[in-house]
Structures are given as structure tokens and as C-alpha cells.
């Protein structure tokens, strides 16, 4: 099964509109007249989405993502943004269940599942993040944690939803730490996650779904990680804040 790799830049709480414009100008000048055998996604903060849409709206090589959405449609939820509102920015993707949302903002598997279903109601494609902490890995709980995150987080998705969903496996201990999972550790976890999707949705869907790796991906380690058979791209934080570094990851990691 050939799966097109997908490289997504998660800027987290970095880059307001003016820095977004600077990045876009730099990145666009580097990718013009080039084609890539991969999908490229950029996820700026909410307040920079309008500027990103202005710069990338007509660029077919680049899709935009939000970093979160509400599990509600509208109402008295101060500070929240609904999937329906995001859709107006011509976004294609939304990152859901990132470990920072889980750990810092207390998002549960059930909340994340509700957000996944809201995103799908308006045809946003979830980049659904899962991954274990170091304590969980060292305590022998890797498989138990991934099983729980997948079975609850992806509950009630249809086969069509699944085709539009990307899973991002991000071991929490590798995020922003400079410590990357070895290619072998990452491949083992990805193969296990794919087997979980097969159990829940069938072998055909499991063979089609793209599973990104995230956690200290850099231009120098992208090729080795992406060479693994079950790794279909990357979700990149720090190294995607600079146009050349993001581009180098895409080029080095495209297989
Ligand atoms: O969403 C991206 C991940 O949290 C990875 O972040 P990082 O590349 O800075 O380790």
C-alpha cells in the first residue's frame, strides 16, 4: 500500500500574523516551481489563520490546519472556537488531542473524541495525536495507553471519516526535548497503532490510514524515520518554525 507522506508544521503558540507573513514569504519563495511527493500542512495559532489563508489560500501545495477546536457548536464557551467557525478559513485539517492539550488543559479521550466528531461534521480532517509518557513507557504501559487513546478517541468514526483522518504518534518524552525515538522504537509503535486501527476498523482501512511520527524531528533524522514502513510523515514543532528547516525535513523525509 502506497500512502502519500504528510508533513505538518505545528507552530504551537508561536508566530502572530506578522511573523506568519514573514514565514510565508520565505517558504513560498523556496517552494515555487517545485512539486513534492508529499502533503504539506501548516498549523498556525488561531489569530494567524487569516494571514495564513491570505498567503497560502491559492497555493495548492500547502494546506492549513488549526491546532484545536471546541467539542461544541456555539454558545457560552469563553475562549473557544468551533469547527464550523474554522471551516470559514478554508482550513483542511485540525490537530486534535495533542499531548500539550491533554497534559496542560486536561483534555480526556472522551473530549477529544467529541472534538473529532465535530470536526468531521464539517469535513475537517483530524490530525489525531496519541502517545505515551516516559513513565508509561518505562512502566510497560505503552500498548495499554495507545489502545485506550485509539479506541476512545476514534470511537464512532465512519470508514469515510477514517480515510480523512491522520494519526500522529508522538511519544511525549520526545516532544521538544531533542530526544527522538529511535527508528526502531517509532516503527514498532506505528505498527502497533496500525494493528489497533485494523482491530477497530478492519485491515483495509488500517492499510490506508496515514500515521505520522512526531517528537524532535529534524532535517538530520527525517530520512531514517521516514524510511520505516509504517511511518507516513511527521508532525513537527520546533524545527518547522523556520522555512528552510521545515523544507529540508519535507525533502529529506519524502520517499
Ligand atoms: O506537534 C508537534 C510535536 O509536539 C513535536 O514537537 P517538536 O518537534 O518540537 O518536538
TrEMBL record:
Q: What is its main location?
A: cytoplasm
Q: What class of enzyme is it?
A: isomerase
Q: Which residues cross the membrane?
A: none
Assembly and oligomerization: Homodimer.
Q: Which family does it belong to?
A: Belongs to the triosephosphate isomerase family.
Function recorded in the entry: Involved in the gluconeogenesis. Catalyzes stereospecifically the conversion of dihydroxyacetone phosphate (DHAP) to D-glyceraldehyde-3-phosphate (G3P).
- This one is known as Triosephosphate isomerase
Amino acid at each position: 500500500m502506497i500512502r502519500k507522506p504528510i508533513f505538518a508544521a505545528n507552530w504551537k503558540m508561536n508566530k502572530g500574523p506578522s511573523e506568519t507573513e514573514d514565514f510565508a514569504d520565505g517558504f513560498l519563495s523556496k517552494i515555487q516551481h517545485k512539486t513534492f511527493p508529499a502533503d504539506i500542512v501548516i498549523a498556525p495559532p488561531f489569530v494567524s489563520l487569516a494571514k495564513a489563508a491570505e498567503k497560502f489560500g491559492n497555493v495548492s501545495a500547502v494546506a492549513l490546519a488549526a491546532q484545536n477546536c471546541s467539542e461544541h457548536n456555539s454558545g457560552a464557551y469563553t475562549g473557544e472556537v468551533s469547527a464550523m467557525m474554522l471551516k470559514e478559513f478554508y482550513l483542511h485539517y485540525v490537530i486534535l488531542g495533542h499531548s500539550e492539550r491533554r497534559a496542560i488543559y486536561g483534555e480526556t479521550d472522551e473530549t477529544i473524541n467529541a472534538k473529532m466528531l465535530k470536526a468531521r461534521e464539517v469535513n475537517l480532517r483530524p490530525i489525531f495525536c496519541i502517545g505515551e509518557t516516559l513513565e508509561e513507557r518505562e512502566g510497560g504501559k505503552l500498548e495499554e495507553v495507545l489502545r485506550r487513546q485509539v479506541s476512545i478517541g476514534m470511537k464512532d468514526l465512519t470508514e469515510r471519516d477514517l480515510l480523512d483522518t491522520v494519526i500522529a504518534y508522538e511519544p511525549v518524552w520526545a516532544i521538544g526535548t531533542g530526544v527522538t525515538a529511535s527508528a526502531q522504537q517509532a516503527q514498532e509503535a506505528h505498527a502497533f497503532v496500525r494493528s489497533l486501527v485494523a482491530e477497530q476498523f478492519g485491515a483495509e482501512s488500517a492499510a490506508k490510514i496515514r500515521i505520522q511520527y512526531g517528537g524532535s524531528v529534524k532535517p538530520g533524522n527525517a530520512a531514517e524515520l521516514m524510511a520505516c514502513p509504517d511511518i507516513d510523515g511527521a508532525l513537527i514543532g520546533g524545527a518547522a518554525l523556520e522555512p528552510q528547516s521545515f523544507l529540508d525535513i519535507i525533502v529529506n523525509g519524502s520517499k
